[in-house]
Design goal:
The chain is an alpha/beta fold. 32% of the residues lie in helices and 21% in strands. The protein binds guanosine-5'-diphosphate, 6-O-phosphoryl inosine monophosphate and magnesium ion. The site of guanosine-5'-diphosphate has 22 residues, from helix 1 and strand 3.
Length: 429
């Protein structure tokens, strides 16, 4: 029995694995849910009681009345978008009264969004396909040690000086933007005043909750293959999306974490540019796109779809230290026969089961597939693993055997209730 009840939820592929759904499910008895990386490039979908919610900054515990929801120091926050999210949450009858924002989190300013789009235009043939939310530019300022942090929002004089510095420094990229320090302050200051009561040292809140043995979920954004260090660089985001980003992005000690749940979509998707060994350009790819409704939660772009990729997942498991898998969207595979799972790659004719560091090598990976029998039955109403068709169970067991990690949760539909818990002690507090 672990001494502390801190669990990490992290995407094991290229994002959009269903982190929002699973976090919301696991948060039933959580005392706190903290996001630790990324910003409003994330789009986490939650469906319950017949309604759909899309979260970008807000942690997926925001619907739980007494749960503290934290935007951790590893995040980057766009106050204008956050303000809109809070308003729409309130319009849906929920409250952000328990929302806390790390005073160390960096702030996305309108100029970061302009620069993101300008940089993409300048990349011409080698665009990254970013979400356009200013993520790269804001993390650049953080690393350059000139960033504006949430605490700075509370000091209008200092804030103005910092904004003027950035507009001067970045003027070459902002010439057509029409942005001035005054126009930015006019937008930001009223929002800063609203957010002020929640801006605090969230690492202290989390530390105290941890010591009291409270239930804490650390919710990742993006996925292992979008991680700044381990992803398919340069086709990655700019933050530490893996489990190691959870302690550094919240201030909780690494040893407080007992469980690391990797969210794995039953097939693979990717949005934006970059290598994708198991991508399908055929009718099966189209079928996954349509049946899985694979359109970006943040940008609406269609997601690229392909077969499940075990070398990729073994790599994701290794760098994350996954203890459990939550397998999502299994229902989308219903009716596809046969099903394929990549078990190795061939690079220039040589077999490997290692995921290469160099994106040019990933591009060269030709998957070697295992073929499994599909199933025809509708599984979206199944409530236990034993109710699943035998071939669906075999699909799950194939993953478990190859990765040597238990599948502790199976998701068979987008709704909260379409969830099978296999190992309750790992999933429910
Ligand atoms: P996240 O970014 O990891 O939170 O994932 P997204 O919300 O961006 O994308 C996952 C999509 O799949 C959303 O539209 C969810 O509503 C949906 N979804 C989640 N789990 C399941 C599932 O088991 N089956 C189906 N059909 N849809 C699911
Ligand atoms: P969630 O949390 C899927 C992708 C973008 C682009 C690359 C860099 O919903 O899983 P950025 O705007 O971060 O500079 O874009 O990363 N990307 C995501 N793809 N899900 C996400 O978040 C993503 N966040 C960023 O499409 O390829
Ligand atoms: Mg998403």
């Amino acid at each position: 029995m672990a001494k502390y009840n801190v669990r990490v939820i992290t995407g094991a592929q290229w994002g959009d694995e269903g982190k929002g759904k699973v976090t919301h499910f696991m948060a039933k008895k959580a005392d706190a849910v903290a996001r630790f990386a990324g910003g409003c490039n994330a789009g986490h979908t939650i469906i319950f009681d017949g309604r759909k919610y899309k979260l970008h900054h807000l942690p997926s515990g925001i619907f739980m009345e007494n749960c503290i929801n934290i935007l951790g120091n590893g995040m980057v926050i766009d106050p204008i978008i956050l303000d809109g999210e809070i308003t729409s949450l309130e319009q849906s009858g929920f409250s952000a009264k328990n929302l806390k924002i790390s005073d160390r989190a960096h702030i996305i300013m309108p100029y970061h969004r302009c620069i993101d789009s300008k940089q993409e235009t300048n990349r011409q043939g080698s665009k990254l396909g970013t979400t356009g939310r200013g993520i790269g530019p804001v993390y650049t300022d953080k690393a350059s040690r000139t960033g504006i942090r949430a605490a700075d929002l509370l000091d209008p004089v200092l804030l103005k000086e910092k904004i003027e510095f950035h507009l001067r420094e970045k003027s070459a990229l902002l010439s057509e933007s029409g942005l001035t320090a005054d126009s930015i302050l006019e937008q930001i200051l009223p929002i800063a005043a609203k957010l002020k009561p929640g801006i605090t040292d969230t690492s202290l809140i989390l530390h105290n909750l941890m010591k009291e043995g409270k239930n804490i979920l650390l919710e990742g954004a993006q996925g292992a293959l979008l991680d700044i260090d381990f992803g398919t660089y340069p086709y990655v985001t700019s933050s530490s999306a893996i489990s190691g980003g959870a302690p550094s992005g919240t201030g909780l000690p690494p040893w407080s974490i007992s469980t690391i749940v990797g969210i794995v979509k039953a097939y693979t998707t990717r949005i934006g540019t970059g290598p994708f060994p198991t991508e399908l350009a055929d009718d099966t790819g189209k079928r996954l796109l349509e049946t899985g409704a694979e359109y970006g939660t943040t940008t609406g772009r269609p997601r690229r779809c392909g077969w499940l990729d075990l070398p990729l997942l073994a790599f994701a498991s290794r760098i994350n230290g996954l203890t459990d898998i939550a397998l999502t969207k299994l229902d989308v595979l219903t009716g596809i026969n046969p099903l394929k799972i990549a078990v190795k790659y061939k690079i220039d004719g040589i077999e490997t089961d290692n995921f290469p560091a160099d994106s040019r090598m990933v591009d060269k990976c030709e998957p070697v597939y295992a073929q499994l029998e599909g199933w025809q039955e509708d599984i979206s109403g199944c409530k236990s693993k034993s109710e699943l068709p035998e071939n669906a169970r075999k699909y799950i067991e194939f993953i478990e055997k190859n990765l040597e990690i238990p599948v502790s949760l199976i998701s068979v539909g987008a709704d909260h209730d379409q969830t099978i818990i296999v190992h309750p002690e790992k999933i429910l507090f």
